């Protein structure tokens, strides 16, 4: 065993990378659920975003345009869900599951000709003085721009939900759609916008995997990250900062277990492999002891005539 | 009830098989793949073998394949379906398909099965594998010469004899040219998961490895090595030449085409019998991809010498004296390992650190 081989600075830097796709997808889903809609299609929107972003980045040579395309693709797929549940009054759980299956199939089809292709590289931001600082430099100032986007998004969503009028309206729709409707708010429109925001976030999260974390396209490469993001929202009690904590915890334990293996720690590998799931769940279950903030209308369909 | 179902489906399958054979006079060959055909590694090479069969026999054969088949009940369903649809010969191309292959073969005695890298056989089940450890000896030789940090990272898939053999072979030959070399091994518990493979490669690089060997199938470790800069890798199963001349400096290539053609021909001619094939560099089943210019000329020359010696049989990759990890004797001076021990290898050789997951 040689624990000194593990460099804590590099470890923190790489756990942030591992956590970013989960974080961005979870923040998107958090907004969706705050509006009272349960969209289980995160995995499907992520994988669609992963291939749409990858293909666009390869064709245009620009990773940033790729991320934009991923957001559009995720949002477009989520509109399908919005139509089914908001207009056609379909069951949200079933529609979400269908969306995941549809997304997995669609992405496999779209990705046929992109297997084995190398995407354009997304360079890390390099700020002259700050990036060269010891310890803090690599952790805080040496990443790609999407990683900072994820953190900024968390802060923005938190501030929006907590302090702004728009956030208040969104929460009102999620708590009691009939009351919000009676007050004259357009429930359907607000929910559709929330769903599209969630889809765009999931798409960006997926593209982060195919463009930065791996970077490569293969079928099913999101490998359950969307489901983890979904679970994270519930365990985080619909609070953005807790979602960030959970994502970093999950990413962190994932990276730590690989580090421990490489350092030759004598814990059976199977325990190490399941540790990210177990530890994240335990910590978030403890944190989620307060049940205060589950949106009351979560999962219930709205129709103005009722 | 279950038994009648079984008998009915078997009868239907037989009817279909003979019916199809009489009607079209085509030999139908099925392939079950564990990854996508575009993985650029293991499955890609099996599919190249399938294409070679098509090219060789043209209209006389019909091939079908199913990709991304999970090891387990799914595999059994896919094989059963293929047999029901009249396949005469089915190649099942992953270690984890071993028990499903045997199970399905029992239900379809007239269908021939070929299982890659397994050790269970039956009257209608052959096994075949390649001596990848010979290729890994060459890689280990190059790796030992090339490492400057003396730390070599190894991404293992599952702790099965095939993978353990590869680790031992690479380690022995790296150690031979560089006594200070140390192996860091990470088990991914997957054959193909680019995100996990990329993370594993990054972790190994962060812990000081400047050479990454992998026994997983995607090119994600190559991409991670390229991003890290001064790290070299080897192509696994396929050439992965798009990452040359660096980080990919050489590769082990699986070449299944001659075997697939020969076995298909045996079925067409009616001479197929259950057999166990294990060929290496000599027979061409294992190829060494071009050693790139990133490797110094003298190292390249000695690596090619080693390859030639392995090919003509003048040198065996496991030649004593070799001790096991616990210090007990395994092979005496000049003694070579027998195939039985190699096939069931479940121990590290002396010098490797860590435990094999049980």
Largest interface: A-B, 35 and 36 residues
Number of DSSP-assigned strands of chain A: 0
Largest sheet of chain B: 6 strands, parallel
Q: What oligomeric state do the depicted chains represent? A: heterodimer
Could you walk me through the main structural features you see in this protein, from its secondary elements to its overall organization?
The complex is a heterodimer of chains A (306) and B (358). With 306 residues, chain A is mainly alpha-helical. Helices cover 70% and strands 0% of the residues of chain A. In chain A, helix 2 packs parallel to helix 4 and helix 12 runs antiparallel to helix 13. By secondary structure, chain B is α/β, with parallel strands linked by helices. In chain B, strand 6, helix 6 and strand 7 form a beta-alpha-beta unit. The longest helix of chain B is centred in the N-terminal third of the chain and has 23 residues. Chain B is globular and about 60 Å long. Chain B starts with a helix and ends in a 15-residue tail after the last helix. About 3% of the residues of chain B have low confidence. Chains A and B meet through helix 1, helix 12 and helix 13 of A and strand 7, helix 7 and helix 8 of B.
Q: Which SSEs are present, and which pair or pack?
A:
The complex is a heterodimer of chains A (306) and B (358).
Chain A: H1 8-34, H2 42-60, H3 63-87, H4 92-110, H5 128-131, H6 136-140, H7 145-163, H8 165-175, H9 177-182, H10 187-213, H11 225-235, H12 240-262, H13 269-287
Chain B: H1 2-24, E1 27-32, H2 42-57, E2 61-66, H3 73-84, E3 89-92, H4 98-107, E4 112-116, E5 125-130, H5 132-146, E6 151-156, H6 161-177, E7 182-187, H7 194-206, E8 211-214, H8 220-228, E9 232-235, E10 248-254, H9 257-269, E11 276-279, E12 286-289, H10 297-311, E13 322-323, E14 329-331, H11 339-343
């Amino acid at each position: 065993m040689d624990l000194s081989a593990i460099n804590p600075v590099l470890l923190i830097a790489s756990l942030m990378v591992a956590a970013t796709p989960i974080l961005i997808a979870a923040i998107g889903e958090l907004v969706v659920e705050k509006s009272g809609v349960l969209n289980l299609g995160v995995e499907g929107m992520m994988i669609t975003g992963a291939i749409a972003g990858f293909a666009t980045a390869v064709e245009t040579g620009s990773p940033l345009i790729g991320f934009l395309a991923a957001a559009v693709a995720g949002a477009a797929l989520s509109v399908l869900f919005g139509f089914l549940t908001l207009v056609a009054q379909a069951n949200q759980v079933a529609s979400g599951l269908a969306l995941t299956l549809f997304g997995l199939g669609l992405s496999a089809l779209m990705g046929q000709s992109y297997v084995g292709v190398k995407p354009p590289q997304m360079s890390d931001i390099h700020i002259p003085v700050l990036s060269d600082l010891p310890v803090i430099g690599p952790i805080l100032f040496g990443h790609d721009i999407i990683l900072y986007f994820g953190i900024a998004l968390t802060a923005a969503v938190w501030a929006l939900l907590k302090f702004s009028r728009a956030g208040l309206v969104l929460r009102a729709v999620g708590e009691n759609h009939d009351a919000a409707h009676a007050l004259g708010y357009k429930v359907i429109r607000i929910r559709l916008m929330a769903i599209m925001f969630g889809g765009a976030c999931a798409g960006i999260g997926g593209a982060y995997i195919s463009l930065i974390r791996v970077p490569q396209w293969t079928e099913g490469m999101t490998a359950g990250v969307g489901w983890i993001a979904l679970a994270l929202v519930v365990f985080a009690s619909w609070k953005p900062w807790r979602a960030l904590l959970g994502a970093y915890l999950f990413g962190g334990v994932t990276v730590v277990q690989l580090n421990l293996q490489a350092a030759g720690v004598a814990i059976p590998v199977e325990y190490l492999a399941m540790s990210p799931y177990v530890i994240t769940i335990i910590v978030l279950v403890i944190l989620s002891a307060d049940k205060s903030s589950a949106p009351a209308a979560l999962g219930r369909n709205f129709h103005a005539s009722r | 009830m279950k038994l009648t179902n079984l008998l009915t489906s078997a009868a239907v399958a037989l009817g279909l098989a003979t019916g199809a054979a009489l009607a079209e006079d085509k030999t139908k060959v099925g392939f079950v793949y564990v990854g996508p055909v575009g993985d650029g590694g293991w499955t890609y090479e099996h599919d190249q073998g399938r294409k070679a069969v098509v090219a060789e026999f043209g209209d006389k054969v019909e091939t079908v394949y199913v990709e991304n088949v999970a090891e387990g009940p799914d595999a059994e369903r896919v094989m059963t379906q293929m047999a029901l649809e009249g396949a005469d010969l089915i190649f099942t191309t992953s270690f984890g398909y071993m028990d499903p292959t045997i199970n399905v073969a029992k239900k379809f005695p007239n269908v021939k099965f070929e299982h890659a890298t397994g050790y269970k056989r039956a009257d209608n089940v052959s096994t075949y594998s390649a001596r990848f450890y010979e290729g890994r000896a060459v890689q280990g030789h190059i790796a030992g010469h090339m490492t400057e940090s003396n730390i070599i990272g190894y991404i293992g898939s599952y702790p099965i004899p095939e993978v353990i053999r590869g680790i031992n072979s690479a380690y022995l030959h790296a150690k031979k040219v560089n006594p200070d070399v140390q192996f860091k091994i990470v088990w991914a518990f997957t054959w193909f998961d680019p995100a996990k493979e990329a993370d594993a490669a990054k972790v190994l690089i962060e812990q000081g490895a400047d050479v990454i060997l992998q026994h997983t199938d995607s090119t994600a470790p190559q991409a991670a090595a390229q991003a890290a800069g001064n790290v070299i890798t080897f192509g696994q199963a396929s050439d992965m030449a798009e990452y040359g001349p660096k980080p990919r400096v050489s590769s082990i290539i699986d070449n299944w085409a001659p075997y697939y053609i020969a076995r298909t021909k045996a079925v067409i001619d009616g001479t197929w019998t259950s057999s166990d094939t294990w060929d290496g560099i000599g027979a061409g089943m294992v190829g060494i991809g071009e050693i790139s210019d990133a490797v110094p000329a003298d190292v390249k020359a000695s690596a090619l010498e080693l390859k030639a010696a392995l090919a003509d049989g003048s040198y065996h990759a496991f030649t004593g004296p070799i001790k096991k990890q616990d210090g007990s004797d395994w092979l005496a001076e000049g003694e070579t390992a027998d195939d039985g021990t190699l096939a069931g290898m479940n121990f590290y050789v002396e010098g490797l650190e860590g435990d094999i997951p049980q």
